[in-house]
Write a structure and sequence with these properties.
Order of helices and strands of chain B: HHHHHHEEEHHHHEHHH
Shape of chain A: globular
Structural class of chain B: mainly alpha
Strand order of the largest sheet of chain B: 1-4
Largest interface: A-B, 46 and 44 residues
Strand content of chain A: under 5%
Radius of gyration of chain A: 19 Å
Helix content of chain A: over 70%
Number of helices of chain B: 13
Pfam families (chain B): BPD_transp_2 (PF02653)
Shape of chain B: globular
InterPro entries (chain B): ABC_transp_permease, LivM-like
Number of strands of chain B: 4
Oligomer: heterodimer
Main location (chain B): membrane
Largest sheet of chain B: 2 strands, antiparallel
Membrane topology (chain B): Multi-pass membrane protein
Radius of gyration of chain B: 19 Å
Subcellular location (chain B): Cell inner membrane
Strand order of the largest sheet of chain A: 1-4
Chain lengths: ~300, ~300
């Protein structure tokens, strides 16, 4: 077991972990307020990847790297379309069920996931779609046997930056305070003059927006996208949120990074064909020892 | 006009079902045959999810345990197919109890995710050919034909009757569960666990029992499935299948036998019938699931005298 191999696994794990963390934030915010597992969130992230691919692929014929403005446009388009889809999802599938039995909302979320997944299949074909190469500058650094690409650095840094921005927004602005208040007690928040519906809509804009960026990162990093990959990334991100303590924003970040590192080490040192099973094993273990996750506080039971 | 009570209508419909082999041809016969199998799995999911109120989203796993038990015992050890039925039930129930024991204390949504986890670990274990017995991603081929008193159940209509009889037994069991003490305890636990515990109910033991009963019944369906297709592979027991079972119970109506059967028809038979629309069916299905939930949050055919609230 060489040190450089270990470091390489850590770098790769951190990259994937950053992406998991970005997607996990959307889960954790929705869960924090509605106590609902938004099963469609992973599919929204994939939608972001496909929107980005469409913007990038439309221009790219040969091998020429796309212009920086086109890459920026891809991200902007992905964020806009996916947040719009998030809001539409809230209005049609979740809002009518806000006071119904919790499992009805779960099934509605599963239906929404099916809708998005198969909708993407109909639009972008059931085949794996390949992302153009050279989307980001092809710079690599070799640091003592460890290969570090510009793409990896960009993903890790922009993920951290976005998470920090969200954290500051939620903790240090008036509207952020409203979000936290609504997460603790919707009725009390309403009595204090907070427009809870607006808060919930904002969560369905912010979460999917971050998810879209995460999805586009997945496409750029692995250079491919397929319509049904949402549940795998979504499930991993959800596990990240639980590991960190669901409903807790720093927890989702920590959980995402830890899960990415753990996955990468498990694939590198144990077996890649058991990687997913090892992930679930870790989850089950953590829940048995700390039922509310690593950073989780005591969560009030919603009855 | 007096409505025909379900208690009479149910058995009547079951007897009508016996005539299917004389009425239906190959394709319909196999669809209805699989319907009977999936109805048993759906009813077994309902024991855990609908009756005991435990969020189980990994139920296809126990279906798979039963199917693999039958396939392995029959193809590797030459155990006659019908003999594997009780074993499939016992092994699945044992696995259900064993896995449930440490996790039943978890809060609802966490339980849901952990059961998904068990389901995925099971699928990966089958795909990775654990113990050299499970055949890897291709699965196991050549499960034999059941025979009783020298008669081989080799034709489609024989298999249909076998499945239909097991469905009938499952329905009787469900009706008895509904009226039994155990069934009532499940309901108390679902409605108010704290109150039930205060009255001296051992919540943990009954939750484990719910998992064992549900898993055992799913194991029986798994045996039928292995025999019906004469092959098993992990694809039929993955997370998506569990999600479908979960949705069948919630869309049809929790703890409602007609609801669960109706759910099975909607979520299982209809996609089979409309295979020509392959490209669109799950897209439309997703919309339908949302619409049904929004219009009827309690399910299409809910249990009687349980109108509002949780």
């Amino acid at each position: 077991m060489e040190l450089s191999t270990l470091l390489q696994q850590l770098v790769n794990g951190l990259t994937v972990g950053g992406i998991y963390a970005l997607i996990a934030l959307g889960y954790t915010m929705v869960y924090g307020i509605l106590k609902l597992i938004n099963f469609a969130h992973g599919d929204l992230a994939v939608l972001g990847a496909f929107i980005g691919l469409t913007v990038l692929g439309g221009q790219l014929g040969g091998g020429a790297p796309p212009a920086a403005w086109l890459v920026a446009l891809a991200f902007i388009a992905a964020v806009l379309v996916v947040s719009l889809a998030g809001v539409a999802l809230e209005f049609t599938a979740y809002r009518p069920l806000r006071h119904a039995h919790r499992l009805s909302a779960v099934v509605s979320a599963l239906g929404a996931s099916m809708f998005f997944e198969n909708g993407m299949m109909l639009i972008w074909s059931p085949q794996t779609r390949v992302f153009p190469s050279h989307i980001l500058p092809d710079i690599t650094w070799h640091l003592g046997g460890v290969v570090l690409t510009f793409t990896q650095v960009l993903i890790v840094f922009s993920s951290l930056l976005l998470m920090l921005a969200l954290y500051l927004y939620v903790n240090h602005t008036r509207f952020g305070t409203a979000i936290r208040a609504a997460a603790i007690d919707q009725d009390a928040a309403r009595l204090m003059g907070i427009n809870v519906n607006r808060v919930i809509i904002s969560v369905f804009i912010l979460g999917p927006a971050l998810g879209a960026i995460g999805g586009l990162f997945i496409g750029i990093y692995y250079r491919e996208a397929i319509f049904n990959m949402g549940w795998l990334y979504g499930l991993n991100a959800f596990i990240a949120a639980i590991i960190g303590g669901i409903g807790n924003i720093p927890g989702a970040m920590l959980g995402g990074l830890l899960l990415g590192l753990f996955n990468s080490l498990a694939a590198g040192y144990i077996s890649s064909s058991w990687q997913e099973a090892i992930t679930f094993g870790l989850l089950i273990l953590i829940l048995l020892v700390r039922p509310t996750g690593i950073l989780g506080e005591r969560v009030a039971e919603k009855v | 006009m007096r409505r025909l009570p379900t208690a009479t209508l149910g058995p009547l419909l079951w007897f009508v079902g016996l005539a299917v082999p004389w009425l239906a041809n190959g394709n319909w016969l196999s669809i209805l045959s699989l319907f009977a199998i999936y109805a048993v799995v759906a009813l077994s999911t309902d024991i855990v999810l609908g009756r005991a109120g435990l969020y189980d989203m990994g139920h296809a796993m126990y279906f798979g345990v039963g199917a693999y038990t039958t396939a392995i015992l029959n193809t590797e050890y030459g155990v006659p197919v019908l003999w594997t039925l009780p074993l499939a039930v016992l092994v699945a129930a044992g696995v259900g109890a064993l896995l449930a024991a440490p996790i039943v204390k978890l809060r609802g949504d966490y339980l849901l995710v952990v059961t998904i986890g068990f389901n995925e670990i099971f699928r990966l274990s089958m795909d990775n050919n654990v113990g050299g017995l499970t055949g890897g991603p291709d699965g196991i081929f050549g499960v034999g034909v059941p025979s009783l008193f020298g008669h081989d159940f080799s034709s489609q209509s024989d298999l249909y009757l076998l499945n239909w009889v097991v469905l009938g037994v499952a329905l009787l069991l469900m009706r008895n569960l509904e009226r039994s003490r155990v069934g009532r305890v499940f309901r108390y636990l679902k409605e108010d666990e704290l109150a039930a515990t205060t009255l001296g109910v051992n919540a943990r033991a009954y939750k484990i029992l719910a998992f064992a009963l549900g898993a055992g019944l799913a194991g029986a369906a798994g045996m039928l499935f292995a025999v019906q297709l004469s092959t098993v592979s992990s694809g039929a027991f993955n997370f998506i299948e569990s999600v479908t079972l979960f949705a069948i119970v919630i869309v049809g109506g929790q703890a409602s036998i007609p609801g669960v059967l109706l759910g099975t028809v909607l979520m299982f038979v209809i996609p089979q019938v409309f295979q020509g629309l392959a490209q669109y069916r799950y897209f439309i299905f997703g919309i339908a699931m949302i619409v049904v939930m929004v219009l009827r949050p309690q399910g299409i055919w809910p249990r009687r005298r349980e109108s509002a609230g949780e």
